[in-house]
Amino acid sequence: MNHIEETARRMKLESPVLAACPGEQRNEALSRVRDALIAQKDRIFAANQKDLARAEESGVAPAILGRLKFDDHKLADVTAGIDQIISLPDPVGKISLARELDQGLTLYRESCPIGVIGVIFEARPDAMVQISSLCLKSGNCAILKGGSETRATNQVLFQIIHEAAVSAGLPEDCLAQADSHQEIDDLLTCDRYVDLLIPRGSNAFVRYIMDHTKIPVMGHADGICHIYVDRAADIERAIPVVVDAKVQYTAACNAAETLLVHRDIAPAFLPRLAEAFREEGVTIRGTREVQDLIPCEPADEEDFRTEYLALIISVKLVDSVEEAVRHINLYGSHHTDAIMTEDPNAARTFMSLVDSAGVYQNCSTRFADGFRYGFGAEVGISTGKIHARGPVGLEGLMTYKYKLFGQGQTVGDYASGKRQFHFRDLPEQEG
Amino acid sequence: MNHIEETARRMKLESPVLAACPGEQRNEALSRVRDALIAQKDRIFAANQKDLARAEESGVAPAILGRLKFDDHKLADVTAGIDQIISLPDPVGKISLARELDQGLTLYRESCPIGVIGVIFEARPDAMVQISSLCLKSGNCAILKGGSETRATNQVLFQIIHEAAVSAGLPEDCLAQADSHQEIDDLLTCDRYVDLLIPRGSNAFVRYIMDHTKIPVMGHADGICHIYVDRAADIERAIPVVVDAKVQYTAACNAAETLLVHRDIAPAFLPRLAEAFREEGVTIRGTREVQDLIPCEPADEEDFRTEYLALIISVKLVDSVEEAVRHINLYGSHHTDAIMTEDPNAARTFMSLVDSAGVYQNCSTRFADGFRYGFGAEVGISTGKIHARGPVGLEGLMTYKYKLFGQGQTVGDYASGKRQFHFRDLPEQEG
Questions:
Q1: How far is A55 from chain B (nearest CA, A)?
Q2: Residue A349, in any domain of the structure
Q3: By CB count within 10 A, which of A40, B142, B188, B232 is most buried?
Q4: Residues B254 and B381: beta-carbon distance below 8 Å
C-alpha cells in the first residue's frame, strides 16, 4: 500500500465520523480556519514569494503570475468566501422524503456527505482555501492536490487549514494533501476508498483522469459553448453580449467558441459584430456564407469541435432555432449555451431542447459560475448528467441515505398478505 | 457505425424532443401501452409459451421457469403498475431553485430527463414493461435488452409498447430494443450518445459492464448486507427479523449475508437463532468464538466478503456498535444494513455511521426495494453515491438544467463593478 492509498483507507473509515459531526462544529472549524489564515498571513505570503520567484525564473507569463499570487487582496477574498460558506444552511441531514410504509415502519431519505473526495486543481492558492472550506462545510473528507507552481504556498495553506480544523475537534483524517505528480496516479487507483474525483485543469488533463480511473469523475473536459443569434434578436443587445461571451475571459470554459446566426438577421448583424470583434482583436472563422458577408478566415468542420480558449470564434449560419439546437447538441460539450432573441417562442424552444447544463436567454455564457449563481464558491463545473450538473457548490457534494425504523417487521408478513403497506407521506422532519 | 450506435445517435438527437413532450402526452402513451397489452394478451402469451417450451427443453429449473412466465396474473400486475406510474406526479420540469441574480436576470434549476438510458435486465418479461414505463413517464429514451431466455416474449412486448407510445405522438426513437449479446458490447462503446447504463443481473455481469464502458453505470455488483444484533436487542423481535433477512428470498441482493452479534447477548441469542436457522435449513459459518457457543462450520476472512445468495450465513461477535460499524463499512457493499436494538443511542450511532444506501433499525434488510418504499416500481438498486442511491424509481431517472433569463447582461459589467448581484430567492414556480 502506497502513502496515498493508506491515507485514503484511513479517511474512508473516518469519513462517517466527520459526517456525523454537528453543523456547529463544522462551522466552528471554518471560523478557526479563517482566523488562522489571517493570523499567519506573513507565513503564507513568504511561501508565496518563493513560488512567485521560482515561476518568474522559469519564465511564466505575467497573466499566469497574477493567478499564482496570494496577497492581502486574495486573503480578503478567501476569508469573505469562508464567512459566506459559514452563513449558508447546513446541507447535512436534510430530509427529502419521510414516509410511513406501515404502522411503526417509517422511511426517511436524509442528505449525507459523499464521503471521500479527491480534488486535483490548478495552481491557484485561493482554490485550496475554497475547496477545503466547501468540503469541511459539507462534511466530506478530501485529498487535495494543487498545481505544483504554487507548491510552497499550498503546503503552508494546507497546514494552517488542517490544524485549525482538527483544533475544532474534526477528525485528524478530515483533510490530506497530495504533493507529487506520482501521487495523482496513486489516487486514481484508490477506487475502494475514494468516492469521487474532481479534476480541474486542461482538457487533456481531465480526459487523462477520466480514462485512468474507476472512481466517478465530476467535472468537464471541454467547454464548447455557443451563442445563437436568432432572427428576432435585438442587435443592439446582442453585440455586447456576444463580445462579452468571447472576450471577457477567453481562457475560461464558459467563454463562447461558436456563434450561430439566423440567416435572416446575418446581413444586418454580422458586419456590425465584425467591427466590434475587430476592436477586441478577435479572429473570426466563418463558413463560405459568412465569408460572403464579412471578411474572415475560413472555418472547417474541425473548427466547430474546437475549444479555442483564445481570441478566435467560429461562425455559421442556420435556418431556424431548431437547426441551431441540433448543431449545439451534436457539436457542443453540453456546458452552457445562449440564445439572443426577443421572441418568447424561439426562446422556449431553445431553452427546452438544448441539452446542456446551462441554457441562457439574452445574456452572456460567462455567467456559468458558482459565485455568479449565488453558491458562494464552487468546486468545479460539471457537464455530466449523473449527479451534480453545472456549477457545483455544497449541494453537489451531498448524497443521501435511506433510514428505515421498524419494530421487528419482516418482509415475509407482507409477501404472504398478513400485513399491507399503506404508504403515508409525513410532514418532513429530522430523521 | 453499427446498428446500435446508429440507433443511439438518432435517440440522442431525439431525446430533447421526448423530454419536451407534455406530461399528459407521456401519461396518454402509458395508458395506451396498458390498453394494448390487455388487447393483445393472447399474442404475448403465445410468444411466452414458445420461450417456456424452449427453457424447459434446455432443462431450466422450475423456480426460474416461474420468473420467465407471463400469464394473466403477471399481466394484471404490470397493468396495475402502469396505472400507479400514471398516477404519480410528473417528475419533469420541477423547479428546485429560482433566484433573481440581479434585476432582470433570473436563474432557475429545473428537473429534466437524463436523456438516453441503456437498460440491460434479466429474463423477466414484467421487467420489460416496468422499465419502459418508468422511462416513458420520466421522458427518457431507452435502449432495452432483456434476458435471452424470454426473447420471443420480449420482442412482442416491445413491439406493443413501442407502437402504443408512438401512437400517442411520442418520437419514433423514444424506445429501441437490443436483441443479441453482441449488441450489449456495441452499446458499451456508445459513450457519445448514451448517458447512463443500468445493468441488472449477476455480480460478474454487472462488473463486466462497469469494467468495459466509459458510460456512467447505475446499479450494484455485490449485495453484502449485514444484520447487527446489539447488546440491547429484544431477542424475541430479533430472531424472526434475522431469519426473514436470510431466508425470505435468498437470491435477492438485499438478503443478509453476515450476522454480527454483540458479545454480551451472544450466549442468550445464538443458541435460539441456531435452532430457528436449523428449521429453515440455513448453514451457519462462525468464527471460533461462535463455534464455542453453537454448532457451526468455521468462517474465514473470505466468508465476510462473500455474497452467498444461498442458505448460508457468516457470523461474528463484536464488542460494540462501533466495531460493528467498522466491520460493515470495510467488508460490506454499502447496500443495506440493519441493527436490532432497543437502545436509541446505539441505533443513532449505527444509523449515522454506517455508510450504506439503506440503514435500518429493527426490521429486515429485505425491505430495500422500490415497491416496498412506495416508489411504484424500480429500475434497479444503486450502491453508487453519485446520483441516485438505493432503490431507483422516477426521481433517479432525472437530472436538471439551469435556465438563465436575461436582458442583455454581460459579465464585464459585474467584473468591473458597474453592476452588482443581489441574489434574491424567488417563490418556486414554473421556469
A1: 27
A2: yes
A3: B142
A4: yes
